[in-house]
Amino acid sequence: MGDFGELVLVLGDLHIPHRAAAIPEKFRRMLVPNKMKHVLCTGNLVTKDRYEELRALAPNVHVVSGDFDDSAAAAWPESKVVHIGAWRIGLVHGHQVVPWGDPAALSILQRQLDCDILVSGHTHRNEVRAHEGRWLVNPGSITGAYSPIASAPAAEPIVPSFMLLAIQGARCVAYVYELRGGQVDVTKSEFTKDAGGGGGGGGQGASSLLM
Asked: What is the spatial distance between Cα 91 and Cα 175, in angstroms, rounded to a whole number?
């Protein structure tokens, strides 16, 4: 892992094969075994076949159940809290939260789980947000699968995306990978525990973790 600390792949909402055929090839080439120590998945893998693919990427794989996961995934919990570095990271799909993706509603769930970072999905839109002294993280949909949110008037189209967290003790750097126009764009946000969130642009420094 080098100087980046523990690398955590964060992804979800694959919806394969119902809404998407596969993870984009450019992403697949980046996601090779033994680079990441953890995988956090917000669910909607749909079938357990995708779970086996995640298990090949990292030794620690954590998945929660989404609203479109089949009965074979019934063993996955609706929520989970994992400890990485100095962080308590909560993991949920997000369909339990109304309105979907609402920061105030997510914050209530975050307090219930008593976590520093809450990872959720369901909206298919990636986001890193500081809220009430903690952080809300959404990796989006790694396949760019359709979401009803995208059909709203003036809504921006869904783009395939995932995240990589580099955690060193109380420091966390979040890299967001988006596939736009056939190219992978990377942006970076950095935050520390018990401090406000900061942000920054992407570029070669950010993308070099996987590219």
From this structure: 18
CA dihedral 76, 27, 164, 159 (to 10 degrees): -90
Q: What DSSP element (H or E) covers 172?
A: strand 171-180
pLDDT at 151 over 70: no
Q: Is 46:15 a contact under the CB 8 Å cutoff?
A: yes
Q: What angle do CA 61, 110, 145 make, to 5 degrees?
A: 55
Helix, coil or strand: residue 106: helix
| Structure token pair of residue 47 | 């079938």
Name the E strands within 49-123: 60-63, 79-84, 87-92, 117-119
Give CA–CA dist 61/9, Å, rounded: 9
pTM score: 0.90
Residue 178: which pLDDT band, with cuts at 50, 70 and 90? very high
DSSP secondary structure code for residue 156 in this structure: P
Residues in the chain: 211
What amino acid occupies position 13? D
Unique residue bearing structure tokens 């909206």: 123
Please tell me whether residue 111 adopts helix, strand or coil conformation.
helix
The topology under which CATH files domain 2-207 is Purple Acid Phosphatase; chain A, domain 2 (3.60.21)
